[in-house]
Q: What sequence folds into this?
């Protein structure tokens, strides 16, 4: 027996209200003759007014379902116990006794509860109401007096009520279908307002007497709340149903009710408090057939319906319990409020009703007496003493059903259906007396891993493979994460755990290059026209993002096309499949023992065996950035609003628990490549600015959304300053991101965030630097979703030119300007934008007239339209805008002669970046220290992540560079060794290009990044089945940058290009050959951005 954490303890509250709250109201006495008396009768009820909360629960009954008094009888018995008179006091359709008068009442609940909670605080529901009437004349004397409600005039019990014992022994029958038929009440009368008045004779010896009674229902109710604050991290419990089990079929009206009791004699009331009381009971097997036995189930409260597809069972989509944000059960932003428990236990909350069930004292209900070992790990209904039902076979209990998931990277990993049970009684330890007229407020407090099994918890792990699904992997290429699987059972000698990424023929017809969603908040539905859904040429997992083996390339190139531009690759190539199969990316076998170097060459894995439990830690990888560039397939997720999904099948031979033979066991894991995170991607400050920045990672909830939204990390997250950068920032945690239970982390290089919390923290800057100093750079690496996904934020202070490698600038190692060119002054020197975020102007090749970015907001000049008329421009040396048409902006003869082939500018060791300069930023090797990232940069005026898409992407020339909170999309080039980073904006519109050569009737000068003008399958090319990711390329964002030099022919060599292509969608970064100026006279030249370098 291994040591176990004890799973849950119980808080059981039974509110009991102050008896003195029911006041005596004496009526005027009436003398009606010697020997008689007039009775003023008061019935007391508890009046609850606890705050009510909303609930998603279905089923059960309203908590006040049986509180009404529909009929009332008052019965008098003489000292020998014989009936004197049965007064009909109230009842629709009944003949009311003429001696009854003055009926009035304020009706509320009178269920017994304790008056304080565990901390000694008074509960809200402590008021009482009253029902009153007069009764005359009554002969003076001694009587046993009783009240019976909701049983009509007792005509059907006329033989039984002739004696006091017969009345109390009436057997009530539970109606499982109509709760209103189970509202019977019984009370004894006394001369004082005593809730617990004894069943004694009442002496009536004066003309006017005040009588009191507390009516008690034969039924009780239970409400169930949850507290997961004691769970370990990485544990989620999804509750589906709360069911009341083994409820009494019958109940004695006025005697203690003990289902299963053989003897018809009424036990002594003190017996129920005696731990040694062991009455003769019917057999366990007869509990559902005995006349005074049990119904197997009462009603249930349905919390939610859990999905058959477990890949969508995530904290964002379904109600659950965890140890932090949803400790009291909830989803989204709900679940961390203490009053959820109060509201769940409110008087009118959904409740489960049952008749009284008195089973006396018994064994401890705790799972463990020493707090470590499970006392009864093998409960057996047929075996007395095994702990089954806590040895109370006729007791009533609550059963909670749901689904358990633990994503811990150890032997506790697992997932599966689970049940929690608790026996009702007067306490949480040894009492099994579920008394009548009581509201049981049961709070299940989960502890530890929450799934160690005994009768109270039913969670089985027979011989099989256990893995938590879904799991997540980064949206970036060449990233990895580790999956933990558990194999339970005896593994066949020399067998292996085999993994295979499923293709469309073996799964659902879906391959993972596509965006994926299922309509939940975590995974929104992908619109039908968002991607190409038709037939795909040679489709399969080789076109997708996932690999079982380490990624070794940035780009997969068809043999023979290594030095050629990607567009020359045959469009019908099958090399993606060839490479995938040759490198066995979709299949891998994992040995149990004798693991050698060859086994680990494609990524290290480990196996830890402990008896019949085997824990596999297996790496998974995203694939190369470009999977044959021509095809468009990629290991990056290009979609900002939608994830992508693949499925892995695991198989192993394990000895079957029943047959004892080795059989194949199978498990499936859904791997979700998270949607691309753009906001924020960079935080830059000028040399004299040290304003801190509040980071909240945000994503698009759906395509074309107007706002980004924060999202929660499923599991813990962290933010760390990457080693190698400059020491000028620290990190600071927030309550929003790290939880209220954790101490604030301030002035540190790494912080920890709480699971199911947003990725939220501060980047704090330490001081400033001189204006022209070398910029200080850092990278903050965020790992989220249990550290399986990565997102980097590029931080910089200072806008002076910078080399990517950190070495001194030279002709072959230029320092990159931080700004795009806005215009040229009269001396042919570049005038830069006011802030690195600003996109600058567009320039046709060789022409120094700036086409202002403000045109992009003008009617007739926006994306894909016009241009309609003349552009606003700044001519060489001008400070005031003028207007020119597109044809007037074509390079002049002097431009072609002087600047078209080699575009020189004024300045001290300054030039427009050459294609060779751009290729110093290249990263074709998987081991390169140079990388690219794409997203939103914020500058001096911004101090927090912006939600509005318009604001986050909307920086332009009119902004105040010191105060604007707006951001800009673009491409970051970074050096992972020293954290140096450079930014290339793609423009506020997202389209950094005006086209000089168009098709399909589009006007020249149109604002569009892509060469295409329509959906790929609408333009007559018929090639969409080969390149489905290019389906809507015509509207995807990107930018073209002019290069200094232009050769008349590039020889199909992208490294001889006259322009450079930054594709924001595919994350491409490569030469554009002469695509921006095909004709040697510049007549078809594009207008593009310009970036300069110092050398």
A:
């Amino acid at each position: 027996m291994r040591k176990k954490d004890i799973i849950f303890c119980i808080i059981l509250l039974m509110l009991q209200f102050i008896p003195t709250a029911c006041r005596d109201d004496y009526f005027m006495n009436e003398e009606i003759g010697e020997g008689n008396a007039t009775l003023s009768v008061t019935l007391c009820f508890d009046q609850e007014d606890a705050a009510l909360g909303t609930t998603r629960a279905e089923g059960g009954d309203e908590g006040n379902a049986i509180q009404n008094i529909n009929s009332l009888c008052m019965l008098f018995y003489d000292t020998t116990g014989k009936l004197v008179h049965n007064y009909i006091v109230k009842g629709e359709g009944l003949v009311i006794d003429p001696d009854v008068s003055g009926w009035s009442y304020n009706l509320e609940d009178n269920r017994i509860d304790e008056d304080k909670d565990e901390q000694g605080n008074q509960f809200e529901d402590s008021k009482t109401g009253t029902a009153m009437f007069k009764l005359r004349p009554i002969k003076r004397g001694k009587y046993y007096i009783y009240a019976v409600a909701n049983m009509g005039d007792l005509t059907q019990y006329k033989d039984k009520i002739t004696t006091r014992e017969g009345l109390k022994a009436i057997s009530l029958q539970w109606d499982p279908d109509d709760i209103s038929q189970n509202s019977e009440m019984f009370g004894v009368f006394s001369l004082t307002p005593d809730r617990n008045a004894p069943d004694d004779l009442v002496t009536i010896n004066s003309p006017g007497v005040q009588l009191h009674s507390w009516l008690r229902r034969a039924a009780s109710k239970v409400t169930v709340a949850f507290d997961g604050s004691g769970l370990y991290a990485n544990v989620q419990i999804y509750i589906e149903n709360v069911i009341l089990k083994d409820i009494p079929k019958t109940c004695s009206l006025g005697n203690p009710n003990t289902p299963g009791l053989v003897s018809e004699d009424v036990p002594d009331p003190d017996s129920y408090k005696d731990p040694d009381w062991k009455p003769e009971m019917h057999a366990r097997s007869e509990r559902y057939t005995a006349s005074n036995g049990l119904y197997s189930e009462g009603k249930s409260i349905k919390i939610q319906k859990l999905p058959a597809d477990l890949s969508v069972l995530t904290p964002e989509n379904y109600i659950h319990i965890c140890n932090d944000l949803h400790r009291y059960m909830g989803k989204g932003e709900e679940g961390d409020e203490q009053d959820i428990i109060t509201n769940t236990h409110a008087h009118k909350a959904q409740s489960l009703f049952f008749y009284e069930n008195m089973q006396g004292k018994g064994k401890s209900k705790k799972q463990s007496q020493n707090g470590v070992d499970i006392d009864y790990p093998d409960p057996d209904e047929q075996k007395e003493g095994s702990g089954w039902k806590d040895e109370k076979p006729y007791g009533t209990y609550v059963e909670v059903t749901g689904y358990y998931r633990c994503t811990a990277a150890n032997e506790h990993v697992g997932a599966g259906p689970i049940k929690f049970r608790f026996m009702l009684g007067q306490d949480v330890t040894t009492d099994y007396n579920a008394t009548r007229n009581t509201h049981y407020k049961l709070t299940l407090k989960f502890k530890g891993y929450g799934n160690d099994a005994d009768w109270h918890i039913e969670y089985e792990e027979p011989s099989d493979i256990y893995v938590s699904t879904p799991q997540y992997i980064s949206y970036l290429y060449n990233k990895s994460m580790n999956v933990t699987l558990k194999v339970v059972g005896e593994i066949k000698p020399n067998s292996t755990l085999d993994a295979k990424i499923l293709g469309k023929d073996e799964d659902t017809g879906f391959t993972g290059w596509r965006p994926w969603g299922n309509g939940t908040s975590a995974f929104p539905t992908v619109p039908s026209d968002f991607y190409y859904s038709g037939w795909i040429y040679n489709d399969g997992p080789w076109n997708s993002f996932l690999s079982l083996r380490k990624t070794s390339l940035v780009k997969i190139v068809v043999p023979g096309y290594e030095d050629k531009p990607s567009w020359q690759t045959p469009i019908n190539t099958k090399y993606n499949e060839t490479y995938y199969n040759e490198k066995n990316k979709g299949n891998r076998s994992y040995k149990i023992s004798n693991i050698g170097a060859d086994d680990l060459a494609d990524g290290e894995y480990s196996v830890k065996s402990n008896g019949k439990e085997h824990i596999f830690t297996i790496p998974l990888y995203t694939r190369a950035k470009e999977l044959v560039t021509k095809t468009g397939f990629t290991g990056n997720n290009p979609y900002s609003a939608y994830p992508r999904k693949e499925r892995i099948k695991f198989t192993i031979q394990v000895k079957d628990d029943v047959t004892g033979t080795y059989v194949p066991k199978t498990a499936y894991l859904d791997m979700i490549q998270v949607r691309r995170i753009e906001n924020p991607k960079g935080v830059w400050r000028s040399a004299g600015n040290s304003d801190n920045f509040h980071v909240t990672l945000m994503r698009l909830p759906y395509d074309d959304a107007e706002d980004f939204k924060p999202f929660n990390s499923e599991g813990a997250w962290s933010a760390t300053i990457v080693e190698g950068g400059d020491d000028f920032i620290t990190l600071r945690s927030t309550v929003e991101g790290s939880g209220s239970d954790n101490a604030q982390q301030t002035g540190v290089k790494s912080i920890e965030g709480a699971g199911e919390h947003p990725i939220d923290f501060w980047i704090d800057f330490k001081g400033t630097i001189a204006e022209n100093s070398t910029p200080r750079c850092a990278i903050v690496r965020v790992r989220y979703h249990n550290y399986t996904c990565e997102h980097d934020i590029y931080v910089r202070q200072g806008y002076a030119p910078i080399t990517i490698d950190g070495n001194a600038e030279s002709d072959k190692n230029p320092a990159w300007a931080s700004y795009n060119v806005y215009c040229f002054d009269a001396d042919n020197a570049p005038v830069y934008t006011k802030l690195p975020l600003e996109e600058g102007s567009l320039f046709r090749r060789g022409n120094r007239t700036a086409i202002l970015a403000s045109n992009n907001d003008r009617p007739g000049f926006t994306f894909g339209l016009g241009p309609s008329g003349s552009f606003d421009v700044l001519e060489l040396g001008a400070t005031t805008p003028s207007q020119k048409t597109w044809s007037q902006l074509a390079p002049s003869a002097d431009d072609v002669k002087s600047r078209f082939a080699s575009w020189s500018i004024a300045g001290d060791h300054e030039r427009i970046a050459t294609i060779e300069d751009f290729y110093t930023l290249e990263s074709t090797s998987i081991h390169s220290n140079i990388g690219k990232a794409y997203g939103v940069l914020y500058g001096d005026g911004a101090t927090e992540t912006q939600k509005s898409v318009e604001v986050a992407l909307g920086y332009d020339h009119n902004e105040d560079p010191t105060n604007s909170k707006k951001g800009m999309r673009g491409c970051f080039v970074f050096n992972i060794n020293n954290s140096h980073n450079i930014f290339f904006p793609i423009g506020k519109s997202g389209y950094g290009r005006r086209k000089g050569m168009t098709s399909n009737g589009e006007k020249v000068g149109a604002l569009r990044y892509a060469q295409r003008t329509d959906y790929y399958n609408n333009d007559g090319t018929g090639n969409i089945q080969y390149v489905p990711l290019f389906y809507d390329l015509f509207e995807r964002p990107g930018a073209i940058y002019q290069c200094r030099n232009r050769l008349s022919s590039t020889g199909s060599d992208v490294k001889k290009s006259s322009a450079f292509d930054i594709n924001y969608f595919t994350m491409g970064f490569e030469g554009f050959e002469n695509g921006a100026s095909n004709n040697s006279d510049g007549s078809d030249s594009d207008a593009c951005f310009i970036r300069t370098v110092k050398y």
About this structure: Confidence is low (pLDDT under 50) at residues 1-33, 46-57, 111-127. The first helix runs from residue 164 to 168.
